[in-house]
Design brief:
436 residues, alpha+beta, Beta-Lactamase, Heat Shock Protein 90, 3 domains, 6-stranded antiparallel β-sheet, 5-stranded mixed β-sheet, 57% helix, rod-shaped
Length: 436
Amino acid sequence: MRAFYEIALQRGGGWLMFGMLAVFVGQLFAFFRSFWMRRRQRYNVLLAVHAGIGFCLLVLILNGKGEMQHWECVKPRFFLSRLVFELPWAVIAAIELVGTAFVTITIINNYRYIKRNMTPRAIKETLDLLPVGVCFAGENGNPAFINLRMNEFGRRVLGHVVTNADELTETVAERGREYEGASTEGSGRNASRLVDLDTGETVLFTTATVKAGETGYRRLATVDVTEQARITAELAARNTKLREIQYRMKAYQVLAADMFKEQELLSARVAVHDGLGGLLLQCRYAFEHPGAVADAELLEMMRRTNRYLLAEAEETPAAEDRLEEALRTARGIGVRVVMTGEEPTEPKLRNILGLAIGECATNTVKHAGGERVDVVITADEAHWQAVITNDGDAPEAEVTESGGLLSLRRVTEDAGGTMRIESDPGFKLTLSVPIV
């Protein structure tokens, strides 16, 4: 079999040299790949020795070929190169095949190792995909591990990537604000801060101390809480508005209580005014016109008035119809009520009309010197209306609502209606109530 030096300068020798170069490149790749994966030291040493052998063979072959071409000799002058070139070419080819097989097995083994084991590179790539920033630093502040999100946060806060955890922590402490949801145990280095970035984002920055065996590390973490911060701000604004409403409600309760007292006092005054006023007018009319008012009717009215004023604890008789009572009171004080139109049947309207007739009859005697009250009632599908006038003197000035008239307006408006008083050319009261 021909020796390698016999074909070294031929085409076949060139292919063998190229194969040796390819094997060496594969050996380097396998070694650095295994070293980058941080595999066991013995495994990496084996790959380094294999790559070293390949490098030596490649150097000897290239050197021998160079000497043969330069000196135009049959064999290389350097004895190690001459030993290699005196080997049969098939041995050189077999060495290359063995090297190729070894490199192939190594690459396959590394690939399977990556699939079956958690490598540092896999951990780094996984943490880089997290939506949170993570950094582990030693006690001196030098980062032992940091992912892309934390470096991005460092560029926005510091203007550069994180090179020292203490620098980042101090900057966040100055720039950030206290996080209300932080644990009360967190203080100093173990604390939480909210940082508002120039991009409009809000980031929660937290620090803590962790241990890996006997070695202590500082863990820095960042979380994007922009949406939570927005919701918290909205809730705070709403709480402020609710507190304002609460203060207003308390003030309203105090005011409403005062208004209720005044309203009850007004109602009591109106009731006393109506009861005593009607009774006194009846008594005067009875004295001035003997026999015009039945004694029994006058005594019954006096008894009801006294019972109301003295608030006797006896059973209250059944409520009488307000309109009938007003007509009876008008007769008792010598006022004739002339009603035109259909008398209402609904209790609400009868109550309003009774209050109006009673008040107008009393005022006709007291202020106008009249003896007749005219009531004109009209109604359609939507409204009921009553117009009340008298035959007394016209008011000398505009009528001021007080007492009974004020109470009548309140009752009318509570029913959704309106009340209008005219003084010229004579007194005229108009009531309009919607029909439900």
